[in-house]
Q: What sequence folds into this?
């Protein structure tokens, strides 16, 4: 298994244990980490799909470093803006 995926799974496990202990915000952190691991695992298995909610493009993996989550800088920026707006609205 990919060492990057293993490291992500360990971080997700630690966040899940924190959530079980009732630490504030740890359930959301665990969910975010698990979603990232799943996305990376899917990318490793098949052609990855861009992580931007409105994009259906695929992400090409060059085989070097960790796989990209977004097909372009535009998608990455849009997803970051949406996440920031969602966080601000939930406060």
A:
């Amino acid at each position: 298994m990919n060492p990057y995926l293993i490291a992500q799974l360990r971080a997700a496990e630690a966040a899940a244990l924190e959530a079980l202990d009732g630490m504030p915000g740890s359930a959301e952190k665990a969910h975010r980490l698990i979603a990232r691991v799943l996305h990376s695992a899917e990318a490793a298995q098949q052609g990855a799909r861009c992580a931007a909610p409105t994009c259906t493009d695929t992400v090409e993996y060059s085989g070097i470093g960790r796989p990209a989550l977004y097909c372009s800088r535009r998608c990455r920026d849009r997803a970051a803006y949406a996440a920031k707006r969602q966080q601000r609205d939930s406060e």
